[in-house]
Amino acid sequence: MNMSPYLVPASPVVWEQEIKKSRFIAYLAHTPDAESARAFIGTVRAREPSAGHHCWAFVAGMPTDSRVLGFSDDGEPSGTAGKPMLAQLQGSGIGEITAVIARYFGGVKLGTGGLVRAYGGTLASALTQLNTVEQRIMASLHVRADYGDMALLEFLLGEYQGQWLQVDYGAEVTGMLSVEARAVAEFCRQLLDRSQGRVVARPVEPEAG
């Protein structure tokens, strides 16, 4: 899996244009998973109840993860809306994003090629209005340390922009940390070396199934 950070929407966008008397209104939002993507699609349907079509596409996860893709033509001719919208999202390199375009038919048929250009072009224009932020991929680590090593542990957490997920203070300090996935190996090595082997952090194994 690619552990590099990727961009996600910082805030929603609504962008509209008219093509041959049809209105195309694009809605973009941050949706970290398929459930939130489908909820957003439902929200747009409720907001634009009179639209003839609510075509959509989403990348509900990392932009390179083909398992989190979805699209729908919602009654438009097959391949004329959802697919060109998905192509725009994938081409943007942005993850955790859903796009819905509500179309109000204006009486002039656009043809299949015209629809592809209309839906793809509307979304392309909407994407130029989108502000993004960087999403880091984080990993969880189990750690056990003596109180005397806590200053070192806290210093390295600051250096690697990590944080505590949970911590228990007993005879020694135990807990779980969150560190950027691509820095895990180096963080663990630094912790081991600087504590002279006293502090060991181990990645949490993903649950099976």
TrEMBL record:
<dbReference type="Pfam" id="PF01205">
    <property type="entry name" value="Impact_N"/>
</dbReference>
<dbReference type="GO" id="GO:0005737">
    <property type="term" value="C:cytoplasm"/>
</dbReference>
<dbReference type="InterPro" id="IPR015269">
    <property type="entry name" value="UPF0029_Impact_C"/>
</dbReference>
<feature type="domain" description="UPF0029">
    <location>
        <begin position="143"/>
        <end position="198"/>
    </location>
</feature>
<dbReference type="InterPro" id="IPR015796">
    <property type="entry name" value="Impact_YigZ-like"/>
</dbReference>
<dbReference type="Pfam" id="PF09186">
    <property type="entry name" value="DUF1949"/>
</dbReference>
<comment type="similarity">
    <text>Belongs to the IMPACT family.</text>
</comment>
<dbReference type="InterPro" id="IPR020569">
    <property type="entry name" value="UPF0029_Impact_CS"/>
</dbReference>
<feature type="domain" description="Impact N-terminal">
    <location>
        <begin position="20"/>
        <end position="127"/>
    </location>
</feature>
<dbReference type="InterPro" id="IPR020568">
    <property type="entry name" value="Ribosomal_Su5_D2-typ_SF"/>
</dbReference>
<dbReference type="GO" id="GO:0006446">
    <property type="term" value="P:regulation of translational initiation"/>
</dbReference>
<dbReference type="GO" id="GO:0043168">
    <property type="term" value="F:anion binding"/>
</dbReference>
<dbReference type="GO" id="GO:0032561">
    <property type="term" value="F:guanyl ribonucleotide binding"/>
</dbReference>
<dbReference type="InterPro" id="IPR023582">
    <property type="entry name" value="Impact"/>
</dbReference>
<dbReference type="InterPro" id="IPR035647">
    <property type="entry name" value="EFG_III/V"/>
</dbReference>
<dbReference type="GO" id="GO:0017111">
    <property type="term" value="F:ribonucleoside triphosphate phosphatase activity"/>
</dbReference>
<dbReference type="InterPro" id="IPR001498">
    <property type="entry name" value="Impact_N"/>
</dbReference>
<protein>
    <submittedName>
        <fullName>YigZ family protein</fullName>
    </submittedName>
</protein>
<dbReference type="InterPro" id="IPR036956">
    <property type="entry name" value="Impact_N_sf"/>
</dbReference>
